[in-house]
Design brief:
alpha+beta, Beta-Lactamase, Heat Shock Protein 90, five-stranded antiparallel sheet, five-stranded mixed sheet, 12 helices, about 55% helix, about 15% strand
Length: about 500
């Protein structure tokens, strides 16, 4: 079984504060330990260099004393060798092993030399001689590190009373660093223990300190998480809060007061808007059939012929159409009087083709082209709401056509196995691309008059029948609305 550890995306302020305090201690500990090691190393180096200089000064004084006493300046090697025992005593007196060379690098007295010089037949090479002579102080320090030689060495010019060089002193210095290293290790070990104790102490303190510091923030966070519009929100009261926390609490309490006022104003506004919305819907639904009814009555007056044998049937159809529209307005008025929403659909088996044709009879026949792939298509519908839906879409289609053009509205019904598709096409001005997302929103309209509720009501009616509505629009060419109704609701 594989286990995975997921790092949290966000850390709480308390955790961050805790981690920062621990990191600060660790960083300070590393800096102190590093600085201490560097300081010890520097002090050790300075200490040994100081000892080397002091030893070298003592030996040079002793050698200069013997040279002056025996007048060995610019004397041959054989004369120098006569006083060899005196110079060898310097090794015993100062507990060192030194060597003397002429200015040309040839040996005078050899008691100890590095392996490089021994390999060079006990002579100093030209490179080393140049470094010694180019040194401003007349002293050149060299460090030898190998498996056999591991020490510092000083090459210094020996001068007479008139400051004239007469030889070169080789002085090796073997450092005894065991004591300083032990002292450093002991100090660092004690420091490690102290910092280990400090680390545990800081962890303990940081835990409670972070908890204390963030307690007020946690209280504010909990209260803010519980804040809502639909309930009474409580204010925050904290004791001994810092100035920043107190300022934050005061801002939160002021926000609660402002929120309460806003909720009251919002509730009042929503009530007013609800009444306005209801009034708009009622006005729209009552006004919507009036214009087609007026046109139908005028058309009936012009075409009615009492002597026509079929006049009684035409009069009955005309009366039924008016009664249907009057019933629609009555239902809307009744719903408003009961302060209810628009009537819920009363579903019953209806002939979709017949009901759609009936809704089209109030419009001018020459403007509308209707077609259906079947003579009868049965669906469960609310007959009144479906007539209202078709009336709204046809009226919007006619109104979208420029007065300079003749409206051409096409309605097509296609029945399939699982659904029925109703398509309504017009040759209007189309819907701009920037308005397509808002076309079904309540109170949205592109016309200079009207309430902007028609398409919103259409969408609600279709959804209550379990269907969907969509459209495709081309500017200046027209719009096509497509309604898809499932076979069974």
């Amino acid at each position: 079984m594989a286990f995975s550890f997921k790092i949290p995306e966000k850390f709480s302020f308390r955790t961050r504060l805790f981690v920062v305090m621990i990191i600060m201690l660790l960083v300070s500990g590393v800096l102190v330990l590093g600085t201490t090691s560097i300081q010890y190393e520097s002090q050790r180096e300075n200490y040994h260099l100081g000892r080397l200089n002091r030893k070298e000064s003592q030996i040079k004084r002793h050698i200069n004393y013997l040279v002056s006493k025996n007048n060995l300046f610019n004397k041959s090697d054989s004369i120098w060798n006569q006083f060899g025992p005196d110079f060898e005593k310097i090794n015993a007196i100062h507990s060192i092993r030194y060597s003397l060379f002429k200015l040309d690098g040839t040996p005078l007295l050899i008691y100890h030399t590095p392996l490089e010089i021994i390999a060079n037949d006990y002579q100093l090479d030209e490179v080393l001689l140049n470094k010694i002579k180019e040194s401003q102080s007349g002293v050149y320090l060299e460090e030898y590190n190998s498996d056999l030689d591991n020490f510092h060495a000083s090459y210094s010019l020996l001068k007479d009373d008139q400051d004239r060089a007469y030889g070169i002193l080789f002085f090796p210095y073997f450092e005894d660093i065991s004591f300083s290293e032990n002292e450093l290790n002991s100090f660092l070990q004690n420091l490690y223990q102290i910092y280990a104790l400090l680390l545990f102490g800081v962890i303990f303190i940081a835990y409670f300190l972070s908890k204390f510091v963030t307690r007020s923030l946690e209280t504010i966070r909990v209260r803010m998480a519980e804040t809502g519009l639909e309930k009474k929100n409580e204010k925050i009261y904290l004791k001994n809060a810092t100035r920043e926390i107190d300022s934050l609490v005061n801002s939160y309490n002021d926000m609660i007061d402002d929120l309460s006022d806003s909720v009251a104003k919002l509730a009042k506004t929503e009530r007013e808007q609800a009444w306005q919305e209801m009034a708009r819907q009622v006005a729209h639904e009552i006004k919507n059939p009036l214009t087609p009814m007026r046109l139908t009555i005028q058309s009936f007056q012009r075409k009615y012929d009492p002597n026509d044998p079929d006049s009684r049937n035409k009069l009955n159809d005309f009366s039924n159409l008016l009664i249907q529209q009057i019933d629609t307005m009555s239902e809307v008025a009744e719903a408003f009087s009961d302060f209810a929403s628009m009537p819920k659909p009363k579903m019953q088996e209806c002939d979709l083709v017949e009901v759609t044709k009936m809704a089209l009879t109030i419009f001018q026949e020459e403007q509308i082209i209707f077609s259906s792939d079947q003579a009868h298509i049965y669906h469960k519908l609310d007959r009144t709401q479906w007539i209202r839906l078709i009336t709204n879409l046809i009226q919007n289609a006619i109104q979208s056509v420029s007065p300079k053009k003749t409206p051409q509205i096409g309605i097509q019904i296609i029945a399939e196995k699982d659904q029925t598709t109703i398509t309504i096409m017009d040759n209007g001005s189309g819907i701009p691309a920037n308005l397509k997302d808002k076309i079904f929103e309540p109170k949205f309209t592109t016309k200079s008059s009207g309430m902007g509720l028609g398409l919103g009501i259409v969408k609600n009616i279709i959804e209550s029948h379990g269907g969907i509505i969509s459209f495709v629009s081309t500017p200046k060419k027209g719009t096509t609305f497509t309604i898809v109704l499932p076979t069974s609701v």
